[in-house]
Amino acid sequence: MFQASFIPWRFYFVIIFISLIALGLIVRLVDLSIVKQSFLEEEGNARTLRMITEPVVRGMIVDRHGYPLAISTSVYSVWIDPKNFFIEPIQLKNLSKLLELSSNTILALSHNTHRNFVYLKRNLSPSIAGKIKFLNIAGVHLEENYKRYYPEGEMMAQVIGMTNVDDHGQEGLELAYESWLTGTAGKKQVIKDRLGRVISDVKQLQPKKSGNNLVLSINRRIQYVAYRELMAGIKENDAESGSVVVLDAKTGEILAIVNQPSFNPNKSPKSNNGEFRNRAVTDMFEPGSTIKAFSIAAALTSGKFSSDSKIDTFPGWMRVGHRVVRDEHNNKILTLAQILQLSSNVGVTKVILSLSPDQLWKFLHNVGFGESTGVNFPGESSGRLIQRTHWDPFRLATLSFGYGLSVTPLQLARAYSVIANDGIKMPLTLLKIKTKPTGERVMEPRIAKEMLALLETVVTQKGGTGRLARIPGYRVAGKTGTAWIAANGSYLKHRYVASFVGIAPISQPRLVVAVVIRDPKGKKFLASDVSAPVFKNIMEDVLRILNIPMDSLN
Questions:
Q1: Scanning 65, 92, 197, 248, which has its CA 20 to 30 A from the CA of 399?
Q2: Domain boundary among 215, 240, 270
Q3: Closest CA to 327 of 311, 346, 342
Q4: Distance CA 253, CA 425 (A)
Q5: Are the beta carbons of 542 and 246 closer than 8 angstroms?
Q6: Boundary of a domain, candidates 199, 215, 231
Q7: Residue 81 · residue 192 · CB < 8 Å
Q8: How far apart are CA 417 and CA 411, in angstroms?
Q9: Could you tell me the residue range of the domain that residue 317 belongs to?
Q10: pLDDT tens digits for 35-58?
Q11: When comparing pLDDT for 261 and 187, which is higher?
Q12: Residue 1: which pLDDT band, with cuts at 50, 70 and 90?
């Protein structure tokens, strides 16, 4: 009796229990599949659906003939997810060898379990990346990106500049044209597995757009010649530094711009001791006697003088206020042409002091001193040309032979390009132009032609300071400048800046080359011995490279 009544009760209990479980499962199923469907989809996607950024190739920088000066190459970064990182001893040994990192370093990085992303090493070659991928280590991932490579190395370093580890411009044109070169990274949704591997693409959110190429006005062959000869000149004269600028006076294009010392942009620099600076654009100096060309041009423009006008420089010195202006020698009576030839301080002082005080300042300002050249180069200096309400005679005298103002090598080259370009000042550019821009007339054509003739005598006439700048078969004009180096409010004894600026060929002026060498410590220090020969070597090769016909029988 007891057993018969107990069995049905247990049976119904089990049935009810199973029914309740089944009902709970049905309710849970409805809840998950209908009520919380969107929430669960979002949670699932959050664990498998990822948005990734697709790296883009940075635009190339090329010279005027399309030769690559800066290109991006594919590299890989290796990173780990410490939470999923697991490595066998043999794998650790091989990974350590490939990354050139100690095993202890790798293990120490993998202990950052509070992070999901830790770089092991960046900028690895595709071949190394392939070997790491072949190791198939859990939690180790590869990320493709790009690294900048500079085929011309030191020769172009201070013009092109460089990028950082993230491929962003840090110096030079890489920095100036960052937005143009960078492009737009792509974005897309992908599905990843629990190890972070991409299983499939879902949706392209933003198409990637590569950076634009940048075509420079620089001629790589001319750049090489200028760099080679500047290095040789600095070594021969044991100089501290130097710069060279080569301009096409007719278009305003910069064909070469080089400096020493330089650096290798393909290696991560350990320190910056001034090697990054494009000295031709950023560094100022007092130009000395190279300014005399514009002092004489201002005198000719005034109408009070001609190239044959005679100035008595006896006895080789003169008192201006409480100061004395001197020449190296007593040259006695000189014409304006001879004042340039012999670089007479006394002669040019007497000429400028006879003019209205503002006349020289206006002339120097018109040819571009004291203002930016507009080349859009980071850190460009505008130089220093002070306009005074009252000109002290001695200040005006020193201005006439290149003291009391500061210029950059690029400004000096542009000023001489006005003489070469028939009196028209062109906007300068480091980019190759498609159409010739319109310049500004700042000098009368007759004055420009007369100055070419006078500057030619500096190179050709006996006693001229530019005799070592002569080039067989070509007519050359130019001017030397040897100026003391200023520091801490005074001039340093026996320390000079030697410069030479020249124009060729005179029959159809086209090229301007400016050579500036700072602090030569060898036996020679005058620009006539230090900078003029460097100019000659550069200009001679540039004329040949551009296939410019000879215009002289000498």
A1: 248
A2: 215
A3: 346
A4: 12
A5: yes
A6: 215
A7: no
A8: 10
A9: 220-262+279-545
A10: 666 655 555 555 555 666 667 889
A11: 261
A12: very low
For residue 2, pLDDT over 50 is answered with no
Q: Do residues 356 and 479 share a domain? A: yes
Mark whether 148 and 253 lie in a shared domain.
Answer: no
For 466, phi then psi, to 5°, come to: -105, 25
The shares of helix, strand and coil residues in the chain, as percent rounded to the nearest 5, are 40, 25, 35
Structure tokens at 404: 């009391």
**Pick the catalytic residue: 289, 307, 499, 531?**
289
168: closest CA among 280, 56, 53? 56
What span, in angstroms and rounded, lies between the C-alpha atoms of 123 and 514? 40
Do 57 and 160 fall into the same domain? yes
Instruction: Check whether residue 205 and residue 312 sit in a common domain.
Output: no
What is the Cα 43 distance to its own chain's centre?
Answer: 50
Distance CA(52)–CA(198), nearest Å, equals: 10
Contact 506, 186 (CB under 8 A): no
Q: Is the pLDDT assigned to residue 318 strictly greater than 60? A: yes
d(CA 403, CA 247): 25
Compute the average pLDDT of residues 492-509: 95
The whole-angstrom distance between residue 383's C-alpha and the CA centroid of its chain comes to: 18
Quick one: tokens of 392?
């002290």
Rounded to a whole number, what is the distance in angstroms from the first to the last CA of the chain? 143
Which secondary structure element, helix H or strand E, spans residue 487, and what is its range? strand 477-487
DSSP one-letter code for 31: I
pLDDT at 193: 56
pTM of the model: 0.84
Q: Is 289 a catalytic residue?
A: yes
Q: What sign has the CA pseudo-torsion 257, 261, 267, 270?
A: negative
502-506-507 Cα angle (round to 5): 165
How do residues 18-31 score in pLDDT, each as one tens digit?
Answer: 877 777 777 767 66
DSSP result, 390-449: S--HHHHHHHHTT-S-BB-HHHHHHHHHHHHTTTEEPPPBSB--SSPPP-EE-S-HHHHH
How far is Cα 501 from Cα 245, in angstroms, rounded to an integer? 9
User: What CATH number is given to the structural domain containing 523?
Assistant: 3.40.710.10
Greatest C-alpha distance within the chain:
153
d(CA 366, CA 371): 10
CA distance 51 to 372: 46
Same-domain status, 251 and 331: yes
Number of residues that this document lists for the chain: 554
Whether residue 251 sits in one domain with residue 112? no
**Angle formed by the axes of helices 345-353 and 292-302, to 10°?**
40
Q: Indicate the SS3 state at residue 148.
A: strand
* 8 domain-assigned: no
